[in-house]
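Summary for the steering committee. The consortium agreed at its last meeting that each partner would contribute one worked example illustrating the joint modelling workflow. Our contribution is presented below. We chose a case with several input lines so that the handling of multiple components could be demonstrated. No manual editing was applied between input and output; the record is shown as generated.
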Amino acid sequence: MSDRLTRVSSPAAIEDDLAALWRDAARDAPIARALMANLVVYRDCPAADEVDLSAPLEGVPIDEVIERHPSRLIRLHHGGRPDPGAPVGATISVLLFDTAGARFGVEEIAVRSSCADASLPSIVRRLALGDIPTSIWWTEDLSHSTPLEALVTMGRQLLYDSRRWADLRRGFLALAALAAHPHGPDLADLNWRRLTPLRQALAHAVVAIGAPLDALDPRALGLRVRHGRNERALAWLLAGWFSARLGWTANDEWPVTIEEQPDGEAILTVSLGAGAITATMTAQHVLVDYNGRVAPFSMAVPHESEAEAVAAELRSLTYDSGLRDALAALAARLTSSGSL
Amino acid sequence: MAESLFDRLSAGLAQPLAAEPVTLVIFGGTGDLAHRKLLPALYNLHVDGLLPPRFAVVGIGRGDLTDEAYRDFAKDGVVHFSRRPPDEAVWKIFAESLYFVSASFDDPKAFAPLGSRLDVIEHERGLTGNRIYYLAVPPSMFVPTVKNLAHAKFIGPPDTPPFSRLIVEKPIGRDLASALTIDDAIAEVFDEKQIYRIDHYCGKETVQNILVMRFANSIFEPLFNQKYIDHVQITVAEEEGVGTRAGYYDQAGALRDMVQNHILQLLTLVAMEPPRSLDAEVVRDEKLEVIQSLRPIDAAAVDSQAVRAQYTAGFDLGSPVPGYRDEPGVDTGSRTETYVALQFFVDNWRWAGVPFFVRTGKRLPKRASEISIHLKGVPPILFNTDPAARLDPNVLSIRIQPDEGFALAISSKIPGPRVRIYPVKMDFQYGSTFGNISPEAYERLLLDVMAGDPTLFMRRDTVEAAWRWVMPVLDRWAEQKDAPLATYAAGDWGPPEADRLIESTGRRWRDL
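What follows is the complete predicted structure of the assembly.
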């Protein structure tokens, strides 16, 4: 259960007002200030003046995330007519949680800004605490609203969800560039996370008939991916992963077929080696079938809310070489072929 | 050699791949442990995608259950005791991996049909014959069950696939002689590499965090020695009485039930030297070194360094509760101790002269397990000169349950014109830092057995060394059959004798 104490503040008085708010929060009973990270949440707002900073973000489970991964939450509402001045408004909050007898609080700073893009990092630099990691959660469609490099490279981690993308090509190319950036953040794609059970199942699946497959030229394996509605990015991520892991270069003929299968409960159906292995991922499980030659098996797909998935990614703070390799392979393919 | 397809596809996965295909055979499959702990733990591992993709659980028991009835039994356990409620779609897949075989563990003839059924299950599920045998049975059944496994030729050699592993629950024996008997009998059948002696305390997050806290933080480790530490306290307090375990507990008592295993395992983690690697045998060697460094408590020292007591009638949160001898199933003349306090020393360079105090008991005011490391006080100069306002020494407390985490008590100036000092606490709580994500201890431990990692399990030499150390205390108490037994009222923090034990050294038990 959570309660929220909120006050309107001004950009210059945020820290003092927050300190006062914490004192108020602890007036009736002691409270632990829980703080593991800075979490910067970016929102486009075409008309910044009209944003209600005290209102929850629509469709983004922020409170649930920071309950699981207590962070100084810095909400940046940015856009509108460029104004050379500082942020135009700020609201501060303390969210109080009481779980299993542990009473703790998490702080939130919401800032409304219409300053020039280039000055956004200065806001984050001022508000982020220095001795804890900073993660940037891009809740917008990153393929439409490309993140400002100076902003995302301030963070140790950039979190996004490629499932939201309208333009896959633009999204993959933007991310591949960030992945190759020498000071780029660790990338965490919620959609990539959803692919984990399927990747695990496929790795296990090849063991049963590994020797005949190992003998083949990887390019001869052939990959057919059918995806459910709104799962196109997931299918492409899988294809990128296979390309990277099996060494399919951009100059080779790409042995990949991707098509939509809008009906049924399958999220992805993957056929490898001309049907030698078929893996079907639904919301509940991955079923691996060997066309009758070996007993099939299934693996559970962990049930996670979006908040649980985001919190888990925020906790991990790891360099995901699989995702970077997949993005690089997709970028190479896109650059050579021009389109998806 | 060319990279296999498996190597290519498994590289870079964010979490390690689940272990090899395996059948988990639970002797005592309808018992309390399976119902409350093992089956819920397996379900949670399944939900998290951590079980091997090819997997079966075969519960063995004397009851006459169908597979369906066993699945219902398992689901009931998940409903009541799992950290997650069952999700119907996920449960359906998990339930398909559960089977039941009715068999008597001590009947050699029962093992042939059991073997046939296991073969059929393994064939149907594409399993390779890897098996883990879990002895969730009373200790008296360990040896007959293991002998029957050998007689039925269920056990393969240690280094040849498919693997055979054995999980043994504590207590292993009730004294050194019986522990040796059990270990010898098991060793005739299983190689030590195949044996996993489980102590669920070692699977708890905070317990695993002790090594991380000590050896991943340069601030603490330099302080963990006789130069800076005044003393160490380990408390394992239970608010419950003997409950339904009277049959076992009245034969065991607190020293066997808690100190010989759980508490000495905690001690090894707090006191061990830095291992040169995280290799299982290296870590376990260092743990053994601690047990072997314990100064023996000889018969003469038992009376001054050990306190035993039994609870009498008292109150639990205002409600009257019976004394130990009035509990169902307990002998009315029982002299079994429900409380133990000990003072001892670890005789090595690091801990020379640092007293360790341990207390554990039933029907104490609250459930609380904690290790507290009490640092030496600052000299009586500057801020510690007023005898009427002595500074509290720093204390690093590691809470194992409930409210897992650790805290550091430090002194801080109270705001104002005068220098007044107040003890404050820097507190880390797992719950508020990481949310409620801690898996149950059995989840971690079962997964480790599947992966063949024995780091968190007790090795034979360590178990026997622990018995060797507690035996003089047990022997001395056995001699004192007619001596008065100290008592404490249920709901108190133990007998006055335990207070005197620590207060005679100028220290006091920490308030929990």
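The CA atoms of residues 237 and 368 of chain B lie 5 Å apart. The interface with chain A takes residues 2, 4-6, 8-15, 17-18, 46-49, 51-54, 87, 89-90, 93-94, 124-126, 402-403, 427, 429, 431-437 of chain B (CB under 8 Å).
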